[in-house]
Amino acid sequence: MHVLEALDSRFSCRAFRPDPVPEETVRAILGAAARAPSGGNLQPWHVHALSGAPLARLVAAVRAKMADLPRGEPGEYAVYPPELKEPYAARRFKAGEDLYATIGVTRDDKAARGRQFRRNFELFGAPVGLFVYLDRTMGPPQWADCGMFLQSVMLAARAHGLHTCAQEAWAQWHSLVGAHLAPPAEHMLFCAIALGHMDETALINTLRTERAPVDAFTRFAGF
Q1: In this structure, are residues 19 and 52 in contact, taking their beta carbons and an 8 Å threshold?
Q2: Taking the complete model, does pTM exceed 0.90, yes or no?
Q3: The domain spanning residue 55 has which CATH number?
Q4: Comparing C-alpha atoms, which of 157, 149, 166 is closest to residue 46?
Q5: Range of the domain at 204
Q6: Residue 106 domain-assigned (yes or no)
Q7: 46 and 183 in contact (C-beta within 8 Å)?
Q8: Of 4, 97, 166, 175, whose CB is crowded by the most CB atoms within 10 A?
Q9: Residue 93: is it exposed, middle or buried by C-beta count within 10 angstroms (0-12/13-18/19+)?
């Protein structure tokens, strides 16, 4: 698959088929993504790849905890700034509205929205979950490096005919996930990536969020 095709076809898949993904495929994806650039070649990412029974146990543990903590644990980092200004607030709002519109859920249907939110912690049915950690001593440059690694994982997945969803929401269960994965204490959970085969029949997978045109975020000079 051409890299431009991979970029264009990548999206946040929120419904997967249960078809298993072989370990060798996951290894190939991660091996390709490891070529992502990082300042000083630090390669600051650490990944736990789960499938089968270990993933099922983790999902079941989160499901059991959600009865008492429906929004999860207090996060170790803020996913969004506390006062999200424009145009970012409007973009986030529209993305949410467009998402729920695909499945016919209105803003005032709190029960249905809650059910869809909880699907995050089932990895939307994906057979593979990649849990990505960063060393706590790392700073913003290394977080940016990790972002390039994540994008590389998602593009490499497309080359194998697979889809993904990067989920910062999993950071809300960092303690519970840590109890299952036993990462070193100096590692902090950044996000998870759901990985698998897209469910082509799911209406939620028809969403393609809008992107600003190049001239909206770029100034050209000297061309």
Answers
A1: no
A2: yes
A3: 3.40.109.10
A4: 149
A5: 3-78+120-210
A6: no
A7: yes
A8: 166
A9: exposed
For residue 197, the 8-state DSSP code is -
Measuring CA to CA, which residue among 222, 195, 199 is closest to residue 17?
Answer: 199
In this prediction, residue 4 has a pLDDT band, given cuts at 50, 70 and 90, of: very high
How many whole angstroms separate alpha carbon 139 and alpha carbon 125? 33
Q: Is 88 part of a structural domain of the chain?
A: no
Number of domains observed in the structure of the chain: 1
Q: Say how far residue 93 (Cα) sits from the centre of its chain.
A: 18
Looking at the domain assignment, is residue 152 inside a domain? yes
Structure tokens at 139: 């700073």
The mean predicted confidence, pLDDT, of the chain is 95
Residue 180 lies in a domain: yes
pLDDT of residue 67: 86
List the Cα angle 97/102/103 in 5-degree steps: 105
Q: Give the C-alpha separation, 105 to 110, whole Å.
A: 9
What's the pLDDT score for residue 107? 86
Whether 121 has a pLDDT exceeding 90, the answer reads yes
Q: What is the pLDDT of residues 130-189, one digit of tens each?
A: 999 999 999 999 999 999 999 999 999 999 999 999 999 999 999 999 999 999 999 999
Q: How far apart are CA 207 and CA 124, in angstroms?
A: 15
Which of 149, 138, 143 lies closest to 34 in space, CA to CA? 149
Is residue 70 over pLDDT 90? no
Q: Which residues contact 38 (CB under 8 A, 6 or more apart)?
A: 44, 142, 145, 148, 149
